[in-house]
Design goal:
Blueprint (H helix, E strand, L loop, with lengths): L1 E7 L2 H10 L6 E3 L6 E9 L2 H10 L8 E13 L2 E9 L3 H16 L12 E7 L14 H10 L6 E6 L1 E10 L2 E11 L2
Antiparallel strand pairs: 1-3, 1-8, 2-6, 4-5, 4-7, 5-6, 8-9
């Protein structure tokens, strides 16, 4: 099983995020129902380890807090965009939650992530940025990206109360990944 932890977004936030997703033949959008904020990618695990992870995450203690989603961006950079995202304003409790999840996973032998924690919400992925397939009815990809990064979507802002996170199983399909919640963990 391919696992990750994430914060499920409320319906209104997913709807508002879907409204700013840029449309272009080269962009594979995250379906509105699948929009979430990944906390920690775990990777492939077997059933026994999945049960241990499910139980270990019950020890993650955190308090409710407000999450602010704001602005847009892309990885790795605007000249070579691959992943389009909405930003997450830094909150110390969010970092504490991430660190606590890391610690519980490490105790089970899951290696810690080497890269830093950069919370974001993935909105889409560029299929082939180098070979643009814009048709006569499609604007150039660069124009769509400029609007996403500097136009109205860049001023995106939504706030909601976070009081739980989830453990998800992800299954890859030809149209992208489908996520299924295995367990939900509430704030204490």
């Amino acid at each position: 099983m391919r696992l990750f932890t994430a914060i499920a977004l409320p319906d209104f936030a997913r709807s508002e995020l879907a409204a700013i997703q840029p449309e272009h033949p080269e962009i594979r959008l995250t379906p509105e129902s699948q929009i979430h904020m990944t906390l920690r990618y775990i990777g492939e695990t077997d059933k026994v380890r999945t049960r241990r992870i499910t139980n270990a995450l019950t020890h993650v203690a955190f308090r409710p807090f407000d999450i602010e989603l704001m602005g847009t961006g892309c990885f790795p950079n605007p000249r070579e965009p691959a992943i389009l995202w909405a930003g997450v304003r830094y909150h110390p409790v969010l970092k504490e939650l991430y660190d606590s999840i890391q610690e519980e996973l490490y105790r089970l032998g899951v290696p810690t992530e080497n890269r830093g924690f950069h919370p974001h919400v993935t909105l889409g992925r560029i299929r082939k940025a180098k070979k643009e397939r814009s048709g006569p009815d499609s604007p150039p990809l660069q124009s769509v990206m400029d609007n996403f990064l500097h136009g109205e979507p860049s001023r995106f802002h939504v706030k909601f109360r976070m009081d739980r996170f989830r453990l998800y199983q992800s299954r890859l399909h030809s149209g992208g990944a489908i996520h299924h919640c295995l367990q939900e963990y509430r704030a204490s």
